[in-house]
Specification:
Layout lengths: L1 H24 L4 E5 L6 H21 L2 E5 L7 H4 L4 E5 L6 H12 L3 E5 L12 H7 L3 E4 L4 E7 L13 E7 L2 E3 L9 E7 L18 E6 L3 E5 L11 H14 L4
Parallel strand pairs: 1-2, 1-3, 3-4, 4-11
Antiparallel strand pairs: 5-8, 6-7, 6-9, 9-10, 10-11
The protein binds zinc ion.
The site of zinc ion has 6 residues, from helix 2.
Amino acid sequence: MKKILLKIALCALLLLAICSMARAQAPAFRVLAFYSTDVETDHVDFAMQAMKFYSKLAAEKHFVFDTTSNWGDLNDGKLKNYQVVVWLNEFPHNQVQRTAFEKFMENGGGWLGFHVSGYNDKTTKWPWFVAFLGATFYDNNWPPLPAKMIVDDNTHPATMRLPKAYVAPICEWYGWKPNPRDNKDIKVLVTLDPSNYPLGKKDVIRSGDIPVVWTNTKYKMLYMNMGHGDKNFDSDIQNRMFEDALMWAGTKK
Ligand code: ZN
């Protein structure tokens, strides 16, 4: 009798352990990252490194980080399985994909966009995105260079672990017109330090207020201009922002 009772108790304990393990392993949130391989090599390099960086983080922080180079996956059916969408240096290719993304964001989805993902000009013809990002591409520096950053806001979860100033690794930096800072819904978190000017040789940024990282407070979104070349992950300081940005995007609004 005692033996049977002991067996039952052991089984119950085992069951409890399995249940708590399953609970512990339930992912905190699910991310789908989009990238492309048929774009500028420097943009592909970043995307590859970013996927490695975030896959490692996903294992540590127990969230799902799926990747796809099929932009057709930007559809309602697929997106309903995810809480966060990341664009690693690309953007939707057609109206169907654009509409699915709009719906995802309007319904409280999270988004991180890097570098050329924010690119839009007069040929883009996507007014929703211009309002969402709060900016249109204006100019850039060339060749890519490291640059001093001013951290405007340390209260946002994405920039909380950044110092007031730091040097960002080599990147191509974009200027914007309209300036996102002029948009009442935009909160600028990081800005290019004017002491960098003149920045570039072939293409030179000589002046101006250039936000680098910002969020549109109407959405769970964060845009980071970093993402050109294979040096972006060389800064342990900046990597904190890359980490914290995704963890923030994965928390409920
Ligand atoms: Zn670039």
